[in-house]
Design goal:
With about 375 residues, the protein is α+β, with helices and mostly antiparallel strands. Among the domains are: about 55 residues; about 120 residues, Tetrahydropterin Synthase, Chain A (2-Layer Sandwich); about 55 residues. It is built from ten helices and eleven strands. The strands form four sheets. Strands 6, 9, 10 and 11 form a four-stranded antiparallel β-sheet that branches. The protein has a three-stranded antiparallel β-sheet with strand order 3-2-5, with no helix packed on it. Helix 5 packs across helix 7 and helix 8 packs across helix 9. It is rod-shaped. The chain starts with about 40 loop residues before the first helix and ends with a helix.
Length: about 375
């Protein structure tokens, strides 16, 4: 009977020659009848392991079968080698530069484009954005539209020993990517830790603030403070060879802290009061000096006039002494009797004269009253 005879011969009632049930040619397992459940997951996994084994024999069914060959190890090795070589292909964007290190040592810098380097561990790359502007805010933290104060960074001492609260922002980019990566550890800061640029900028701001007084800092010298801080920060970073280019320093706010604002206002008001008092004193001094100068000039002129008059009288006296004496006597008597009550009695008259004493007394009072201010003025 043929081996593939599936009829019900005498050998086993429709089974194979050895009674193992119906067999298909070449050791294939029988087809499952319709409606029967397919092979389970274990059988599928076993079949896949046998199919992709490294040259192992795929154990067939009980009917036997030839060995099955998997993927050769040479092919797998070539695939892995190709993947390792292609891992060195990389792309640099137009705003970036890549630094290639060979066994940890700087090798070269590549510009934008598609490049290849030896795969790891022989060469590695570090791609850095060199054109984008980076910013750090010092003295405060921006939350929404509000800049929340950070007291440890913002409070600084001025040259006149006052306290000022300073918030500022520094903007910079990378000028030399090799120096940026290798010369300074953590230049921009990571994981919340301040970087070298931030620390240098804060130190420069404290130094510039310490050279100036409080009032100019918060009023007229804000632009000068920004310029000086930018210059000093760039100078220090250049000494470090940090590969950083400072673009600008922007002073966001500078004011007396709220804790001392009242004391600061008192100091400012006291300074203004002192300035007003000084101005008033200088104005009063100028008025008194001017009055004294005018009085001095008046006295000098009057003295010069009196001296000139005396010289004139003396010249006349030398020419006619008797006439001059009589004139001086008459002028003196005229000044004496000008303000007094004068009664002239003729001794040759025989009648007793009537003297109006009441009227003379009444006339003496206003004369005395008038003479008193004149005497006070003469005393002055």
């Amino acid at each position: 009977m043929p081996w593939n005879d599936q009829s019900g011969g005498s050998g086993g009632g429709g089974q194979g020659p050895w009674g193992g049930g119906p067999r298909r040619p070449w050791g294939q397992p029988p087809r499952p009848p319709q409606g029967a459940q397919g092979p389970d997951l274990e059988d599928l996994m076993r079949q896949w392991r046998e199919r992709f084994g490294f040259g192992g024999s795929g154990g067939g069914s009980a009917g036997g079968g030839g060995p099955r060959r998997g993927i050769p190890w040479q092919v797998l090795g070539a695939v892995l080698l190709g993947g390792w070589v292609l891992s060195g292909v990389y792309t640099v964007n137009e705003t970036q530069q890549a630094v290639i290190t060979q066994l940890g040592k700087y090798s070269r810098t590549t510009l934008p484009g598609i490049h290849w380097h030896l795969p790891a561990p022989f060469e590695t790359r570090q791609v850095v954005d060199v054109t984008s502007q980076r910013t750090d805010e010092i003295g405060c933290v921006t939350r929404g539209d509000e800049c929340v104060d950070v007291a440890d960074e913002s409070l600084m001492i001025t040259g006149d020993r006052n306290i000022v609260e300073v918030h500022f922002r520094i903007s910079y980019n990378i000028s030399d990517v090799e120096d940026f990566i290798f010369n300074v550890r953590d230049p921009v800061g990571q994981n919340g830790e301040p970087g070298a640029v931030r620390q240098v900028a804060e130190s420069a701001m404290r130094e510039i603030i310490g050279r100036r007084q409080l009032e100019p800092i918060i009023t007229t010298e804000r632009a000068a403070v920004e310029t000086d801080v930018s210059t000093l920060t760039q100078q220090v970073l250049d000494e470090y060879r940090a590969g950083i280019q400072v673009i600008r320093v922007e002073l966001l706010s500078a004011s007396a802290p709220p804790a001392v604002i009242e004391a600061f206002n008192d100091v400012v008001n006291a300074g203004q009061d002192a300035e007003a008092a000084r101005n008033n004193a200088e104005r009063e001094t100028a008025r008194i000096v001017n009055a004294a100068e005018a009085y001095k000039e008046q006295v000098v002129r009057e003295a010069a006039g009196e001296a000139q008059r005396f010289n004139s009288v003396y010249g006349e006296y030398r020419q006619a002494p008797q006439v001059t004496r009589d004139r001086l006597y008459l002028e003196t008597m005229e000044r004496v009797y000008r303000t007094g009550n004068l009664v002239i009695l003729d001794q040759r008259g025989g009648a007793v004269p009537y003297l109006p004493l009441d009227g003379m007394i009444r006339r003496d009072r206003p004369a005395a009253t008038t003479a008193q201010p004149q005497a006070e003025q003469g005393a002055r």
